[in-house]
Amino acid sequence: MRFVEVEGKTREDAVGKAAKQLGVPVADIGIEILSDGSRSFFGLMGSRKVKIRAWSKREIRSLQEQEEAEERAEKAREATKDRGPTQAPASEVLEPGACAEEARKVLQELLRWLSDHARVHIREETDERVLLEIEGDKTGLLIGKRGQTLDALQYLVNKIVNRGSEGGKRIEVDMEAYRHRREQSLRNMALRLGEKAKKKKKPITIEAMNAHDRRIVHLTLKNDQALETKSVGKGELRKLVIHPLNASRPKRDEDSGSAG
Fold it and tell me: Where do you find CATH 3.30.1370.50 in the chain?
C-alpha cells in the first residue's frame, strides 16, 4: 500500500497536494497529522507548515476486501477439513459475542463527541481479542498524531468493557488499517536506524514511544547480532536506544529486548 508525506500552508492545502500525488479525489484521501502547523512563540517567527501522511481510502477498502475474502476462504477450508465431507458447511457469518457487541456500543458512544458520521464495526473476534474498525469522516482527527487518538479511544474502551474483571478480551481499535501502516513504518524505521547505528558505531536514541511501538522496534532488530535495543527512562517519556555491540555499552540496569 502506498502513502505519501506532504507539507502545506494549511491542512486543506496539504490534503489537496496529497490527493494530486495519489491521483484520487480529496474525498477519497485518508490522513494522519504529523505536524499541525502551530505558530511559533507569539507568532514572531511566522508559522510552521502543516505536515500530513496520506493514503487512498479506495486502496484501503480494496486491501480489506481482499483480506476478508482470503480469511473466509481459509475458515471454510478449515471447517470442511474438521467436519469431514458428510457434514453441511457452517455459516460464514458469526453472531458477535456479548463482549464484542458491548465494546462496539461503548466506542460508538465515545465517537459521538468527535464525529456525527463515524460508525463502528466488529472486524474480528477471537477468544483473546476483539478488533473494532471505525469508518467515517474526520480521519485525521480520529486517528490523531501518531495514532494518539486511536490509542486513547482503545484505552477507554478496554477500561469500560473489562472493568471489574480479570483476563478479559483485549479490545483493539483501528481505522483504515492505520495499525498495519504504523507497524510497517516502525519496522522500516528500525531497520534504517539500525544500519545507521552500525555504520556510525554509535548508539541512536529514538523519541519517546508507547510500549507497543517500542516492542515492534525490539522485535524487528531482535535477530541482528550486531545490535542491542534498550528501553530507557520512565513512564510516557520512555525512549528506546539502538546500540551497536562494538560501541560503549549503556548501563545494565535498563531493560533490553522488551517493550518495557
Answer: 181-256
Class of domain 94-176: alpha beta
**Where in the chain do CATH 3.30.300.20 domains reside?**
94-176
**Alpha carbon distance 30, 13 (integer Å):** 14
Question: 179: which residues sit within 8 A by CB, 6+ positions away?
Answer: 147, 150, 172
**Distance (Å, whole) CA 106 – CA 153:** 10
Measured in degrees and rounded to the nearest 5, phi and psi for residue 20 equal -65, -40
Cβ neighbours of residue 38 under 8 Å, at least 6 residues apart? 47, 48
CA dist., res. 142 & res. 136, Å (int): 9
The per-residue pLDDT for 201 is 92
Single-letter amino acid code for the residue at 115: S
pLDDT digits (tens, 9 = 90+) for 45-72: 556 788 888 877 777 666 666 666 566 5
The domain covering 181-256 belongs, at the CATH homologous superfamily level, to R3H-like domain (3.30.1370.50)
